[in-house]
Model the fold of this input.
Amino acid sequence: MQQGNFVKDKVVLVTGAGGGIGRDFALALGREGAKVVVNDLGASVAGEGRDISRAQAVVDEIVAAGGTAVANGDSVADWDAANRMVTQAVETYGRIDGVINNAGILRDRFFFNMSVDEWRAVIDVHLNGAFYVSRAAAPHFKSQGSGSYVHMVSTSGLIGNLGQANYSAAKLGLAALSKSIAMDMAKFKVRSNCISPFAWSRMIGSMPTETEEQKARVVRLQRMETAKIAPLAVYLVSDAAADVSGQIFAVRANEIFLMSQSRPLRGMHTEEGWTPQTVAERVIPALKPNFYKLDRSQDVFDWDPV
Ligand code: NAI
Done:
């Protein structure tokens, strides 16, 4: 395997790196000279069970290719465990330069049937987990005057999707957390960005393939390899991205996008104030042409991946 030095000697913690997109982040970072803490609980897609051998297998791959890595089997959804990951990075390699919040689970259910447990489990891993791990690394980043956070978000939150109220809310919350970190820590030269990936992993591998249309869609999706997300993530961790912060990118096979962030689209104002009736008569008819449809991610990204 060809070794590079794009992130030479940077110490990077990647959560949920025992498989899927995170595994490819860890392998790519290892190839580019980083010292990688490979975290993974080794859970099922629904977040059940644990098995550190999945993280260890990725470490073994990195080491076999001439890289440097260590495994961690803790859960991001636990504040003490999140601190242990960061401590492990600092005790093993002397510092921490990057955190990639990638660990994730799914508990899909239509909103009207979603249980409190399904809601909490997903918020705990994606939103609380990203806060815990980021917050645990923050004192190190602050005192050394450098550091890069990369958070995996989703068009399920940025755009919309059916049956994923817990996941969409967590991911859009994570985008706001990233922006807040970018603003609060800019004075310490600490950066925070999001990647919204599209990739064929076990997380979307359970899609139904009953109809011809569904089969064709899955064939298209399989072209979106998990390894295609890694170059942008490695770049964002590197010093080459020193002036990139507070952004949301999307990656789909060979396409990389900068996603928009919410800004006023159209306004109406009046000197005398509004009444429900004048809102109905004047505001809504003026704004309605600009209303958003109930788009799902696939309605917006409606062309084949390149
Ligand atoms: P994956 O299921 O292959 O990988 C997620 C990993 O996180 C698993 O190895 C799992 O064991 C680990 N994990 C789960 N709970 C954990 C916890 N509490 N602590 C530590 N590790 C834990 O899924 P994939 O597709 O690689 O997803 C990676 C990230 O990208 C996730 O945050 C996901 O939400 C996001 N994403 C993926 C998309 C895709 O198209 N695959 C689309 C949009 C977002």
Summary: DSSP finds ten helices and eight strands in the chain. The chain has a mean pLDDT of 96. Residues 11-258 form a domain with the Rossmann fold fold (CATH 3.40.50.720).
